[in-house]
């Protein structure tokens, strides 16, 4: 054993274990908010993908489609700011949605340098089908919480998001 090995805490030394039977040591991770949020996000995204699988829509794309539907004529830069996506990424997202025939870019009536976004008829049709599926998926993810706990959970998540 080297001097360095003898100074390592016992928990951090390599432990022999069977890959099939032993759980990994997680250290402080289970007590960290970020770790638990990430695990919840992964579970939500996987369930979301199952709910919308035939439509090839990501949670981010769904959010963008909803924002466009609710704010017809919105510019790409205002949309990016609203959803927290940088300009170049927003252009790529809109390019993808436009190439799928879900979003239409039109010259902005207020600013010649930007586009006004709206959903195409196909985009509207897609959201009509997806919204109930995603609402059901969302409720399924929090089925073990009471309605009051669900409301409190959303309030707490909003507080965390606003604290940055």
Short description:
With 164 residues, this protein is mainly α. It has helices at 3-7, 33-52, 59-70, 76-83, 87-99, 121-141, 147-162; strands spanning 74-75, 103-107, 115-119. The chain has a three-stranded antiparallel beta sheet with strand order 1-3-2.
Fold and architecture overview:
The chain is elongated. Helix 2 packs across helix 6 (121-141) and helix 4 packs across helix 5. A three-stranded antiparallel β-sheet has the order 1-3-2. It has seven helices and three strands, in the order H-H-H-E-H-H-E-E-H-H. A hairpin with a 7-residue loop joins strand 2 (103-107) and strand 3 (115-119). With 164 residues, it is mostly helical.
User: What kind of oligomer do you see?
Assistant: single chain
Average pLDDT for all residues: 88
Got a strand count?
3
Structural class: mainly alpha
User: In angstroms, what is the radius of gyration?
Assistant: 22 Å
What percentage of residues falls in helices of 4 or more residues?
55-70%
Q: Could you give the order of strands across the largest sheet?
A: 1-3-2
* Low-confidence segments: none
Helix-strand pattern? HHHEHHEEHH
Strand content: 5-15%
List the total number of helices: 7
The largest sheet is: 3 strands, antiparallel
Give the N-to-C terminal Cα separation.
Answer: 45 Å
**Bulk shape:** elongated
């Amino acid at each position: 054993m080297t001097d360095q090995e003898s100074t390592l805490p016992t928990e951090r030394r390599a432990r022999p274990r069977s890959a099939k039977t032993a759980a990994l040591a997680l250290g402080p991770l289970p007590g960290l908010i970020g770790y638990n949020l990430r695990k919840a996000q992964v579970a939500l995204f996987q369930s979301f993908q199952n709910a919308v699988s035939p439509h090839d829509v990501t949670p981010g794309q769904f959010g963008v489609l909803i924002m466009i539907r609710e704010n017809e004529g919105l510019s790409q830069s205002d949309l990016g700011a609203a959803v927290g996506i940088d300009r170049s990424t927003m252009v790529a997202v809109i390019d993808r949605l436009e190439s799928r025939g879900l979003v239409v870019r039109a010259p902005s009536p207020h600013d010649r340098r930007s586009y006004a976004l709206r959903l195409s008829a196909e985009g509207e049709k897609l959201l009509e089908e997806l919204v109930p599926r995603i609402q059901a998926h969302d409720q399924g993810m929090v089925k073990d919480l009471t309605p009051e706990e669900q409301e409190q959970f959303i309030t707490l998540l909003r507080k965390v998001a606003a604290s940055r």
